[in-house]
Amino acid sequence: MKNVTDSFVSLGYWPSAGSFGFNTDILATNPINLSVVLGVLIFFGKGVCVGCLSDLLDNRKQRILNTIRNSEELRGRAVEQLEKARARLRKVEIEADQFRVNGYSEIEREKLNLINSTYKTLEQLENYKNETIHFEQQRSLNQVRQRVFKQALQGALGTLNSCLNNELHLRTISANIGMFGAMKEITD
């Protein structure tokens, strides 16, 4: 340290300076100041600054490289997941189309089944209606026949009662009762 202060003191004895003081000429003093500052920095900071700066730059470089590597890995995983998602989407779209087609065909099948079932039901109802009409016609005809027969029988009995004697009357009644019973068995 003593050497440094001695060099400043010796500057005051230069014959060109004349006296010790500040030199305000920037062009003359700038190279001197820069050389002193650079000398001090190189002398005292040689090992420390270059090593620190190198380490800092190396660490920064490693962090940047790690970040780039991580980003690339994440991008790769994201692309892979995107491809998987697209594949799943295509599969789901295909299944949806199949369900849609199957659903439409199922709806058409159900519609045809319903129409066929309705036609069968209408056919059965028509058959039941016709059978009921035929049954009612037969029943009505039988009732009319029975009434006509009953009235004819009563008229015949009335005529016979007025024309016949007792013995003939009893034989005729017996014969008619036998015929009536036979007819009743046929109609039942």
Automatic annotation (TrEMBL):
Q: Does Cell division count among this protein's keywords?
A: no
What is this protein's name?
Answer: ATP synthase CF0 B subunit I
Residue spans crossing the bilayer: 32-53
Q: Which domain of life is it from?
A: Eukaryota
At the highest ranks, the source species' classification is: Eukaryota, Viridiplantae, Streptophyta, Embryophyta, Tracheophyta
Could you list this entry's UniProt keywords, alphabetically sorted: ATP synthesis, CF(0), Chloroplast, Coiled coil, Hydrogen ion transport, Ion transport, Membrane, Plastid, Transmembrane, Transmembrane helix, Transport
List, alphabetically, the GO terms of the cellular component aspect. Answer: proton-transporting ATP synthase complex
**Coiled-coil intervals in this record?**
68-102
Ribonucleoprotein keyword on record = no
Where does this chain mainly localize? membrane
In its UniProt entry, the species of origin is given as: Symplocos paniculata
Q: Which GO terms describe its molecular function?
A: proton transmembrane transporter activity
The record's section on InterPro entries has:
ATP_synth_b/b'su_bac/chlpt (IPR002146)
UniProt-listed HAMAP family: ATP_synth_b_bprime
The membrane topology term of the UniProt record is: Single-pass membrane protein
Family statement: Belongs to the ATPase B chain family.
The processes (GO biological process) annotated in the record are: proton motive force-driven ATP synthesis
- Reported function: F(1)F(0) ATP synthase produces ATP from ADP in the presence of a proton or sodium gradient. F-type ATPases consist of two structural domains, F(1) containing the extramembraneous catalytic core and F(0) containing the membrane proton channel, linked together by a central stalk and a peripheral stalk. During catalysis, ATP synthesis in the catalytic domain of F(1) is coupled via a rotary mechanism of the central stalk subunits to proton translocation.
User: Where does it live in the cell?
Assistant: Membrane
Q: Which gene encodes it?
A: atpF
